[in-house]
Automatic annotation (TrEMBL):
<dbReference type="InterPro" id="IPR018485">
    <property type="entry name" value="FGGY_C"/>
</dbReference>
<dbReference type="InterPro" id="IPR043129">
    <property type="entry name" value="ATPase_NBD"/>
</dbReference>
<keyword id="KW-0808">Transferase</keyword>
<dbReference type="Pfam" id="PF02782">
    <property type="entry name" value="FGGY_C"/>
</dbReference>
<dbReference type="Pfam" id="PF00370">
    <property type="entry name" value="FGGY_N"/>
</dbReference>
<protein>
    <submittedName>
        <fullName>FGGY family carbohydrate kinase</fullName>
    </submittedName>
</protein>
<keyword id="KW-0418">Kinase</keyword>
<dbReference type="InterPro" id="IPR018484">
    <property type="entry name" value="FGGY_N"/>
</dbReference>
<keyword id="KW-0859">Xylose metabolism</keyword>
<dbReference type="InterPro" id="IPR018483">
    <property type="entry name" value="Carb_kinase_FGGY_CS"/>
</dbReference>
<feature type="domain" description="Carbohydrate kinase FGGY C-terminal">
    <location>
        <begin position="246"/>
        <end position="431"/>
    </location>
</feature>
<comment type="similarity">
    <text>Belongs to the FGGY kinase family.</text>
</comment>
<keyword id="KW-0119">Carbohydrate metabolism</keyword>
<dbReference type="InterPro" id="IPR050406">
    <property type="entry name" value="FGGY_Carb_Kinase"/>
</dbReference>
<dbReference type="GO" id="GO:0016301">
    <property type="term" value="F:kinase activity"/>
</dbReference>
<dbReference type="InterPro" id="IPR000577">
    <property type="entry name" value="Carb_kinase_FGGY"/>
</dbReference>
<feature type="domain" description="Carbohydrate kinase FGGY N-terminal">
    <location>
        <begin position="4"/>
        <end position="224"/>
    </location>
</feature>
Amino acid sequence: MGIVAGLDSSSDSTRIVVCDAETGAVLRQGYASHALEAAEGGGRPSDVDPQVWLRSLGEAAVGGLLEGVQAIGVSTQRNALVPLDAQGHVVRPAMTGADRRAQTSAADLVDALGGREGWAQAVGLVPQAAQPVTKLRWLRRSEPENADRTAFLMQAHDWLVWQLLGRPVRRTTDRGGASGTGYWSAATGSWRPDLVELALGRGAGLPEVIAPWEAAGTTPEGLLISAGTGETQAAAFGLGVGVGDAVVSLGVSGSVMAVHPEAVRDGGGSVTALADATGMHLPVVSTTNAVRVLRATAQMLDVDGPQALSELALKSTPGAHGLVLLPYLEGERTPHLPHTAGTLSGLRTESMRPEHLARAAFEGMLCSLADALDVLRGRGVAVRRVFLLGQAAELPAVRAVAPALFGVQVVVPQPADYAALGAARQAAWALGTVHGTLDPHRPPAWQGAAAQILEPGDDLPVGQAVRQQYGAVREQTHPGAFPA
């Protein structure tokens, strides 16, 4: 069938995988950092010259890496806004998803559409600082000259695809990327230009949203470029998750997402209704606190990071002798408690030991993420197994505790460039569709990720008891935080 490549341009590097289009076997890989180059460009760390992404792509592809490749898929960091003027020139450096300057603008926008429920019903998400719609409001207020020059809106993967194709008249995006903007609805599959105008104070052009299996175009050299998508969607596609699968990501903050056939409507705004990279949906629930809880607890106990904390936690027992940590150290998104603090409950003489606090930190972090899983379940999303991602997934305490608390099989994939693999799989899909060798509605059946499988087994009742203990403290401390 041929050879395809997947390009993942994250916040700090570009990774390329070259794969057999039929099996997904990785043939070659390339890597280039671009964080230092972006920083040397001046300005704020969250402002990045998009040319950095192109130069990094070239560096990652040296040595004939792309020789024989017939199609490329592009995955990039989510929520990076690239405003263009009427001639297609970048108006200002791209504003990345890590940009937090627009937090006040987010609150303004929420109020402007009648609150959280108004946004949740309109586009399936409540604006946060990261979303492009919020960046548009910030641009209007802080850089009005640049706002006036802005004629067209792109995200990082849209812009890179457009550049690879030689900047054609047609400009495209995919459902996954569009669904995170704050001005496209996954439920209706359509742009909301009125929300662009609400944020920017004027209208702006938007790219054509194409299907996951469609090609964005062909380069003058005959190289097919697929639709592209955001890193979240590409990683899910690279993992091979399907209906009934959830992905729990353990970063400094946490997220839970699951594949679902329909857009999830959530009037309270706890769920961000993203589209995925296959034509289905990818509802996401985010938590503010995840691995930061482990790091803070390790520092408090004067142990050397999460690994040492894990060893200490395993000296305790399930339930941590009644010690419960509500891990809302930086406020919390789920439940919506932005101004709260963490709570340590159950202090007794026998529980005031380092190993019990270490165990409570792991249980609190994972119970909080299990709460997020329950938010999805409560809206009709099936969760029959959980993929656990992030470096913390390798910690023995996480592996020991997670299956019983989540109550389902836990899959810990081996480390790999899953976003780049997802982009390559999308390229293979577009290539096969063009050649008539693949069904447009059925992606290539690549082998799933190699992984360790963990079952709750006999520990399930113990996990349920720990969750009940946690839930009782949460409800007593924050009554009604999770309405029935």
